[in-house]
Amino acid sequence: MAQLISPGEVVRGGIARPSPADVALDATLIAPHIAPAEYRWVLPTLTEPFYQALLANKGTSTAFSLPAYQALWDAHLKSLCAEAALYEAAPFIVIQAGSNGLYLNNNEYGNNAGIDGLKFYQDTLRARLELNARRMRDWLCTCAASLPGFSSSAAGCPDAGCGHDPSQDLYSTFGLVI
Questions:
Q1: Mapping DSSP to helix (H, G, I), strand (E, B) and coil, where does residue 107 land?
Q2: Secondary structure (3-state) at 112
Q3: pLDDT value for 134
Q4: Quick one: which of 27, 75, 73, 29 has its CA closest to 54?
Q5: How far is it, in rounded angstroms, from Cα 25 to Cα 153?
Q6: Which of 22, 56, 138, 152 has its CA 20 to 30 A from that of 69?
Q7: 89/41 Cα distance (integer angstroms)
Q8: Cβ pair 82, 17 in contact under 8 A
Q9: Taking a C-beta distance cutoff of 8 angstroms, is the pair 57, 69 a contact?
Q10: Is residue 85 a contact partner of residue 9, using CB atoms and an 8 Å limit?
Q11: Is residue 116 a contact partner of residue 73, using CB atoms and an 8 Å limit?
C-alpha cells in the first residue's frame, strides 16, 4: 500500500524531525504501522479522494510537485503522519512478541517504561494528534481554493470559511450530552 510518509522520515531529520521519536529508533519498527496510522488519523481529515491525490503527486523523494501540497506537508501533514505512525507503533515497540512469548523490550542503556509509561506516552501523543488534526483541518478549510483535489464540503469545512470557531458551536458550549 502506498503511504505519504516513509519510516525513515518518521525518525530522521535531527532537530527538525517530525515526531518525538529518538533518532536512534529503528525505522523498521515503525514501517508496518504507517498504513494503519494514516488510515486512522490522516485519512479522515483529508478525505479519501484528496489523500489519493496527494499520493499521486508525491514523488519518490519527500517532495510534492505542487507547491500547495508541499506547503501542507511542511506545515502540518508530515508531523501528523509521523506522530500517528509513532502512536500506532508504540505498543509493539514496548511489548514485543518472540519465540518466548510477549515480553517487555529492555536494553543496556535504559529501562523499559512498562505498560504505565506506554499509556502515558500514548495519551500524550493522542492529545497532540487530535490537536494537530484540528489545526490541519482548519488550515485545509482556509486554503481549500488553492488545493487541487480537496473538497471543503466533503471534509466538513464550515460554510463560513475563515474565522469559524467550532468551540462556539451550540453543542460544544451548551453542556448538553446527547
A1: strand
A2: coil
A3: 93
A4: 73
A5: 39
A6: 22
A7: 13
A8: yes
A9: yes
A10: no
A11: no
Number of CB atoms found within 10 A of residue 84's CB: 28
155, 137 Cβ separation under 8 angstroms: yes
Closest of 137, 118, 139, 140 to residue 129, by C-alpha: 137
Cell digits of residue 28? 523498521
- Check if the beta carbon of residue 147 is closer than 8 Å to that of residue 73: no
User: Has this prediction a pTM greater than 0.90?
Assistant: no
How does DSSP assign 38-105, residue by residue?
IIIIIHHHH-HHHHHHHHHHB-SSS-BSSHHHHHHIIIIIHHHHHHHHHHHHHHHHHEEEETTEEEE-
Cell 448538553 belongs to 176
SS3 124: helix
Distance CA 19, CA 23 (A): 10
- The C-alpha angle with vertex 13 and arms to 11 and 15, in degrees rounded to 5, equals 105
Contacts of 28 (CB under 8 A, 6+ apart): 7
> Is the C-alpha dihedral spanning 129, 130, 133, 139 positive or negative?
negative
Query: How do strand 101-104 and strand 95-98 relate by DSSP bridges?
Result: antiparallel
The amino acid that residue 1 corresponds to is: M
> Cα–Cα distance between 162 and 156 in angstroms, integer?
13
* pLDDT tens per residue, range 77-121: 999 999 999 999 999 888 888 888 887 877 777 777 888 988 998
